[in-house]
Amino acid sequence: MRDSADPSRHKDAEREVMRHVEALIAGELTGRDRTLSIDTRRGRQQVVNLQRDVRRFDQTNEHKRLMVDLDVADFDLQQRLPRGEVVDVSLVGRQLVFFSTKLGHMRVLSMPPVRELIQGVSPAPLTSDEVKRRLREVPPPTRVAGPMTQVLVSTSGFTPEARQLAVTSDRTTTVLIEPDVAGGWLVHAPDTHADLRKVFNPEGDADKRRRVRETLEARQTDLITGGVSLKKVADDLHLPASIVEAEAKAWAKQSTNLRVKTLDGVPVLYREGLSGDAASVKGPSMAMMDRLLGIFGKKGDVEKKVAYLSERRAALTQQRDGSLEEIGVLEAKEAELRGEFKDASKIARQRITAQLVQLRKDIARNQQLMQVLNQQVNVVGTHLHNLELLKQGETAKLPDVEEIAEDAAKAEEVLADLQAGNELADSVLPPEVSGMTSEEQSVYEELLAELEPPAEESAETDPQQTPVTPKRETETAAKPTSPPPVPSSPNRVEPEAG
User: Fold this and answer.
1) What distance in Å separates the CA atoms of residue 478 and residue 324, rounded to the nearest whole number?
2) Nearest-angstrom CA–CA distance, 393 and 390
3) What are phi and psi of 76, to 5 degrees?
4) What is the value of pTM for the model shown?
5) Which conformational region is residue 13 in: left (phi greater than 0), alpha (psi within -120 to 50 degrees), or beta?
6) Is 336 strand, coil or helix?
7) What is the DSSP string of 250-282?
8) Which of 137, 150, 300, 343 reaches 20 to 30 Å from 399, CA-CA?
9) Burial annotation 288-326 (CB, 10 A radius, 16+ → b, else e)
10) Dist. CA 103–CA 162, nearest whole Å
11) In this structure, are residues 125 and 154 in contact, taking their beta carbons and an 8 Å threshold?
């Protein structure tokens, strides 16, 4: 979202942060992580326990002037741009009975990338110089008394250098809020005010659980072929592992064949066969060989076998994924050494060459390990598939051949009785009637005759009508006459000349 050129997305993000800030100021949120406390002249104080003078304004007029300077006339674009909202909060405390004194001030300032959005280009994160320039452009709060807490919001993010501005200096505490590339938000605050990182985060627990659920649903293929490492999901989403594991367990509880279990120290969500009965099969811990003998011996049932093989497949898949990640790290290191080899000296090149040889051996060993793991996953998956087919065949409880033949004979008897009853019903039906009496039928035919006159009447001609001349005679009369040709005499003699 942070690098999107769509103004509406930045406007929605700005609104989300401002709604959260206003709820914090009003004390509408519950929980210790949702109680705002800032520095005042009397130390850290909860905002809801003090009188608050709130003032709001935005930078829409500056945005209009910027559109004029850029020669962009687009009313729809102007409505979709973020407003650049500013919220000023003066905190007032009681002194004695009739007097009040100002204890501190908080300002929340949104810094959207308006220029880039007007030009239709992807915005870049704000640098430290850009942040300082934006702060100078906005009018400072009036009559500030006591410590100052300023919260800067950038819907396009901050550079690593700009994040260093989240410090406390000169009685001013700076907090930075930006969208996270993994979803959600990132809040940067000084270490002395680490609680503000949770307080100013607009994403609640419900939104975090929703992101976890969407990620797990998008990885259904991994659940079918092996399992999903919840630690990796937590790292990818930048969320606490406890939230990810709790949501995965809640999702597995709603399903009939999903289970969360710690394998090799990592919590994994995996599919446990076609039926949920295997998940309830539990027993005392025992050695691996005893488990194998107990499960695959004569007394082992299908549910226990499916549960064990599903767990083994998930564990093998996690080992394979870990080996694949190691190969990626080794390949990245190889590329780095190859780049260093170009500009290195002769002695350094010899050292780099030795490192490359060792790296390639490590990569080959990991690839060989991956082949073994792939073969093991294939064997376990095949055995698990056969057990699932067996389980499905047992649960179907299909009838045998004799029962099918007996039911077919009964069905034929029912069809024969139904056919006989149908023929009897047809035989007792009354004769078909036209629906009109003979008198009504006579009048009906008379009316039809009036609508269609007889053929003799239509053949009579009008005496004033011009008679029709047959086509052959007309063509003969219209054809022009020409004089008869003069016959040539073969005995005619021409006079001699002279």
Assistant:
1) 102
2) 5
3) -65, -40
4) 0.61
5) alpha
6) helix
7) HHHHHSSSEEEEEETTEEEEEE-SS-GGGGG--
8) 300
9) eeeeeeebeeeeeebbbbbbbbbbbbbbbbbbbbbbeeb
10) 29
11) yes
- Written as one letter, the residue type at 107 is R
Task: Give how far Cα 249 sits from Cα of 245, 310, 356, Å.
Answer: 6, 17, 44
Query: Is residue 463's pLDDT more than 50?
Result: no
Q: Say which residue the tokens 């915005």 belong to.
A: 123
pLDDT of residue 489 exceeding 80 = no
Cα–Cα dist 319/30, whole Å: 42
Parallel, antiparallel, or unpaired for β 37-40 and 43-46?
Answer: antiparallel
Residue 194's identity, in one-letter code, is A
Q: Are 288 and 312 in contact (CB under 8 A)?
A: no
Question: Which CA distances in Å does 151 have to 93, 173, 247, 461?
Answer: 22, 8, 31, 104
pLDDT tens digits along 200-228 = 999 988 899 999 999 998 887 777 667 88
**Which residue in 370, 46, 342 sits closest to 196, CA to CA?**
46
Alpha helix (H) ranges present in 5-147? Answer: 7-26, 60-69, 75-80, 114-119, 128-137
Contacts of 110 (CB under 8 A, 6+ apart): 14, 17, 18, 82, 83, 84, 85, 86, 153, 155
Q: Which pLDDT does position 362 carry in this prediction?
A: 85
CA–CA distance from 47 to each of 68, 89, 90, 119, 196 (Å)? 41, 10, 10, 40, 13
Q: Roughly how many angstroms between the first and final C-alpha of the chain, as a whole number?
A: 120
**92 to each of 54, 106, 149, 185, 206, how far by Cα in Å?**
11, 12, 15, 31, 34
The residue assigned the tokens 């659980």 is 209
